[in-house]
Amino acid sequence: MFGYMGKILRVNLTTNAITTEDLDFELAKKYIGGRGLGTKLYMDEVDPKIDPFAAENKIVIINGPLSGTATPTGGRYMVVTKSPLTGCIASSNSGGEWGAYLKYAGYDAVIIEGKASLPVYINIDEEKVEILPALDVWGKLVTEASDILREKQPGSKVMTIGPAGEKLSQMAAIMNENDRTAGRSGVGAVMGSKNLKAITVKGNLKPEIADAEALKAVTKECRALLKENGVTGGGLPTYGTAVLVNIINEHGVYPTNNFQGGVDPDAEAVSGETMTEKYLIKRNPCHHCPIGCGRWVKSEHSPDGIGGPEYETLWVFAGDLGINDMDVVIDANYWCNELGLDTISAGATLAAAMELYQRGFITDEILADDIALKFGNPESVVHWLKKMGNREGFGDLLARGSYRLADFFGVPEYSMSVKKQDIPAYDPRGIQGMGLQYATSNRGGCHVRGYLISPEILGLPEKLDRFDLAGKEVWAKAFQDLTAVIDSLGLCLFTSFAMGAQNYADMINEVLGTKWSADEVMLAGERIWNLEKLFNLEAGITKADDTLPPRLLNEPMPEGPTKGWVHKLDELLPLYYKERGWDEDGIPTEERLKKLGLL
To answer: What is the pTM of this model?
Structure first.
């Protein structure tokens, strides 16, 4: 069984039963691994209508067939469960090293079921697997908990939740290596609901490769493509994802003050260029990554520096809050990582709260005369993040996310979210394809389910007119399907800036010994996308949820290069459904499901 380790680990926290099962290789080939196979395994065992916090809910933590190999960026893993934030299928992706080490321990996936009566952690050391007490690390911040667990399990990689996950915040993340994050959809809260603080893993096993020499040649070719590409070989290594701050701002789609505007005249203060010049200590690449977009930056929290903020984090704690102070952003990023909060949803919830304060829905009396939630107030950011992570006072309501916050005050339209998950740092009024992707994403508001910023802004693989609707449904489907493949392989989405379906097919074939074509790769991605759609439909997600916040559909952008534009979803959505082979209500047809092998 090439590429895969051939084993699935199952841990029942209620009964303490620990068992292993053989991987169904035919099923693995059909759904690849990672996001695809994880979703299939989950759906075969869990009712989509389940309460995410029920003991009967499960978590599938899974790498891909290229995880732990020498393929570029081959170290990622997915966390698949039902999202407590959205009610959709959740499959949150993280980099670092943990995913590769799960494979080195001998496993393709871990299925966690049941609920422990007291806090525990799982230790995986190849065939030695234990459920161990975690009372001494429960309640601790991520770094301290990780340090303690590494002392107990030397040589292990640690995945853990912070206080936000323990307290079931719907935006709680799972952290590994302290600053890598399975960040979105509240997967950390599902872990917390099971009284599972962490999973430590180590091992020295390696997957067998079908043709190791041929893989070396393919890998060399792919690395050359990544090095020659202006984004993966230039912008990202030099400036990190923060290279986007000035680019997006110059296009007038850099959301400010909870998407009330699209241009920030002071954005340079938190740009990748500024970070590199004044704060960068070194690059901080993930496992086997030739790109190295991760940052290690100066901070008062450690003389050796800490993990630096990504573009989305820089935007959400700067432009979206009306604050442009790199020190504030770095501090906010640090506290989100320590508390185990998704930076996008945490910052966007503060932005929604600030607009609610601006418009009089949240008052000083409601805040009990605590620090005012005002745009442009740097003192409010970390203060309220800590209260959010620990669910203290008004922070308890903030911990539920921007949609539930705004809905509590009777104005859900002030939440800039799709399916209750906050949309990231690109205003879709000026990027029509990206807006379509937001609206149709199977996980709610998300940029990494089909990164149409690549053709619409960066011009990769070709430059599209960001305002033109023609063909955007075709591009959206293609990017969504290809991304599903990349997530399932255990690779980083950023490889797609330089690589196409045939490159991924080449790597798959040399690792697994298969003969996939580029078209078969894309068909597998479409199968995975439709599988997720079927889960969401059974969970109660309908056409009405494939939408954008009313502001983005009805209020023209007030300024800048995008001035006067709204998103034209009403024109694009029917075209997208048709392109997908779905009916007018967004339901996959029997014909399409048969073609994909889902019936």
So the answer is: 0.97
Element of type H or E holding 80: strand 77-82
Tell me the DSSP string of 101-135: HHHHTT-SEEEEES--SS-EEEEEETTEEEEEE-T
- Work out the average pLDDT over 100-128: 98
| Interatomic CA distance for residues 44 and 568, integer angstroms | 37
Cβ–Cβ < 8 Å for 164, 86: no
Separation CA 137–CA 392 (nearest Å)? 20
> Amino acid identity of 35?
R
Q: Of 1.10.599.10, 1.20.272.10, 3.40.50.720, 3.30.1160.10, which CATH number belongs to 426-497+517-595?
A: 1.10.599.10
What mean pLDDT do residues 379-387 have? 97
In 426-583, where do the E strands start and end?
Answer: none
CA 437, CA 449: separation in Å to the nearest integer? 8
d(CA 289, CA 98): 14
Domain 242-421 belongs to what architecture? Orthogonal Bundle (1.10)
| pLDDT for residue 178 | 86
Mean pLDDT in the chain? 97
CB atoms within 10 A of CB 247: 17
Instruction: Give the separation between CA 436 and CA 218, rounded to whole angstroms.
Output: 34
The distance in angstroms from the start CA to the end CA of the chain is 27
- Taking the C-alpha atoms of residue 570 and residue 548, their distance in angstroms, rounded to an integer, is 10
Task: Tokens for 365, please give them.
Answer: 């009396």
pLDDT on residue 1: 77
Residues 384-433: tens digit of each pLDDT? 999 999 999 999 999 999 999 999 999 999 999 999 999 999 999 999 99
Nearest to 160 by CA among 118, 119, 221, 114: 119
DSSP 283: E
Instruction: Provide the residue type at 282 as one letter.
Output: K
Residue 104 CB neighbour total at 10 angstroms:
22
CA angle 342, 343, 348 (to 5 degrees): 105
Report residue 203 as tokens.
Answer: 């091992």
Q: What are phi and psi of 18, to 5 degrees?
A: -125, 120
- Location of each CATH 1.10.569.10 domain in the chain: 242-421
Q: 479: closest CA among 512, 506, 456?
A: 456
Handedness of CA 47, 53, 55, 59 (dihedral sign): positive
**CATH class for domain 7-202?**
alpha beta
Model confidence pLDDT, tens digit, residues 157-177: 999 999 999 999 999 999 999
Residue type, 124: I
